[in-house]
Amino acid sequence: MTKHIFVTGGVVSSLGKGLTSASIGMLLERRGLSVRMQKIDPYLNVDPGTMSPYQHGEVYVLDDGSETDLDLGHYQRFTNSPLTRDSNYTTGQIYLSVINKERRGEFLGQTVQVIPHITNEIKSAISKLDGEDVDVVITEIGGTVGDIESQPFLEAIRQFALDIGKENCLYIHLTLVPYLKAAGELKTKPTQHSVGQLRQIGIQPDILICRTERSLSRDERAKIGLFCNVPVDAVIEEKDKDFSVYEVPISLVDHGLDELIVRKLGLKAGKLMLDDWRDLIHRLRNPEHEISIAVVGKYSEHRDAYKSIYEALDHGGIAHKAQVRIQRIHSELVEQEGPERLLSGVDGVLVPGGFGERGISGKLEAIRFARVRGIPFFGICLGMQCAAIEFARNVIGLEGAHSTEFDKNCPHPVICLLDEQRSITQMGGTMRLGAHPAVLVPDSTAARCYGTLHISERHRHRYEFNNAYREQFAAHGMQVMGTSPDGSLVEVIGLPSHPWFVAVQFHPEFKSQPTRPHPLFAGFVGAAVQRRLSRSAEKTKPLPVASQGDGNRDGRSSQGATPTAQEDLAR
Ligand code: GLN
Q: Residue 68 CB: number of other CB atoms within 10 A?
């Protein structure tokens, strides 16, 4: 029988419930158990696909095309639990389903109510992950205990234990134990209050995980336990990690969490296998190189807007024993200050996905700078579309080349809508979404990174490379490195004459794991390390005597420029 763990959060939001839940999933998997992960979000949007990255951070896309909460990205990086549309539910989705059933007359004349109809719908969403091959389902309840929105979910998980037996359920509550400098003390009262609220609903947490900036003494843990009705050994400290989130599971093991869960749920678990994870922490802590990568995007001020990209860059760093310093650069700043000042010192430039015209010209300038200077460049989704626009304008010479997303009547629509997207009026869930296969061109940079010609990657976009321009791109040195299996859609483009210039229509960042860095991120970071090494070697060489021909029309040195760059500058 499948057992259930429910993770709730109290005191404040942004405590890292997603990371903690992912860490718990990972530890159970590494004790030989089969785990499924699930997030429930109490907002009314049917999915986060229609939400602004400023509000909600990244939208994480699954193989099956569902647009989900970014916590599922943590689940994917920490565990091997398969994620499907049943892994993320929102209030909007639950209500939509109940209301649709009501319209179909499925409630046979009953008054449709929060209890039992909404709570039944929630319970059935949770049970969907049960299975003969599943030992544990971990359900993370979004929001904070006490929020009006999360009430039906808490009520549903309370009932859940009634339905399947308390011995098959475990309630884990994540709280904050703040340190008050003025008093010189850790304060346990907010935790007491938040557990108090849970108990009012009828949920007695079995385990408390306490986020704290200072270690909790046994006395402090005993005090929390006493007031919250939890044994002291089930009060677990989770101290802030200023180094890496990948240390969270290790510290939870050090405080005995995996053993506690296994014991409380009576699970038949094996020995904990953490060697590869400890190895990756060791690599992170002992880098041999340090590189800086500029991520030039529109939502750069939001920490979570490109979450999976930042993580995947770190994974690329793990592959090359390199510490990756990420510079989040707002593309509008590139427009104001020019790329020279912002990008001269970086070892790689990445332009991520996005929507809308604001900041596009800054992205185009950043791409041109990277292309001309031979700086490793990685374009993702909108980043690839911008790379195509930049190349069309500045190398092929197609004036006014653009995407029809930004200029419907542009003279050269190098990026445009496919016919099946033209008639769509509804916004939610209507893009080209989810995993699609692609075939790579042998010996291309992309194929060399992947080490295979057949790949599958996740998409989230409406616009595509316009095939009418394929030949002109090829004639000027931009190679199509990958297409859909029937050859009709361009999925990867790149410059063979550049040290590393690859742009992809899909989102490789969603599939990267710290223990299995994505091949393109590993390739990109590897190229950035090479650039850093060769630049350091340059610096130690005696300076060449400058000849008159060394300047170019931008007044920059042409040293290090690739043939493509030189061609461009000579145009
Ligand atoms: N806005 C572009 C499109 O819809 C790119 C989307 C993205 O970068 N995810 O095609």
A: 24
Single out the catalytic residue among 381, 410, 416, 449. 381
Dig out the tokens for 570 from the structure: 């000579």
Rounded-to-integer distance, Cα 551 and Cα 571, Å: 15
pLDDT in tens, 57-92: 899 999 999 999 999 999 999 999 999 999 999 999
**Beta pairing, strands 401-403 & 412-417:** parallel
In the beta sheet, which residues pair with residue 465? 415
* Residues 506 and 481: beta-carbon distance below 8 Å: no
Determine the atom of ligand 1 nearest the C-alpha atom of 463: 10
Number of helices (H), then strands (E), in the chain: 21, 23
Does the structure show a pLDDT above 80 at 242? no
Whole-angstrom CA distances from 395 to 360, 401, 424, 476 are: 18, 11, 34, 7
Q: Is 410 a catalytic residue?
A: no
In angstroms, the Cα distances linking 472 to 69, 377, 396, 459 are 40, 21, 7, 26
* pLDDT tens string 368-381: 999 999 999 999 99
Distance 116 CA to ligand 1 centre (A): 41
What pTM did the predictor assign? Answer: 0.90
Determine whether the shortest distance from the Cβ of 53 to ligand 1 is under 6 A. no
Using left for φ > 0, alpha for ψ between -120 and 50, and beta otherwise, residue 400 falls in left
Residues 210-228, buried b or exposed e (16+ Cβ, 10 A)? bbbeeebeeebbebbbeeb
Q: Which two tokens stand for residue 358?
A: 């604001």
State the Cα–Cα distance between residues 24 and 175, nearest whole angstrom.
16
Q: Do the beta carbons of residue 277 and residue 515 sit within 8 Å?
A: yes
The protein residue with its alpha carbon nearest to ligand 1, atom 5, reads 382
Contact 59, 460 (CB under 8 A): yes
Specify the amino acid at residue 259. Answer: E
Count CB atoms within 10 A of the CB of residue 556: 16
In single-letter form, the type of residue at position 565 comes to: A
Peptide bond connecting 116 to the previous residue in cis, omega within 30 degrees of 0 = yes
DSSP states of 210-262:
EEESSPPPHHHHHHHHHHHT--GGGEEEEE--SS-GGGHHHHHHHTTHHHHHH
Q: Where are the alpha helices (DSSP H) in 355-410?
A: 360-373, 382-391
The helix/strand/coil state of 211 is strand
Strand order in the sheet with 463-465: 401-403, 412-417, 463-465
| Model confidence pLDDT, tens digit, residues 489-498 | 999 999 999 9
pLDDT, one tens digit per residue, over 387-405 is: 999 999 999 999 999 999 9
Nearest CA to ligand 1 atom 8: 353
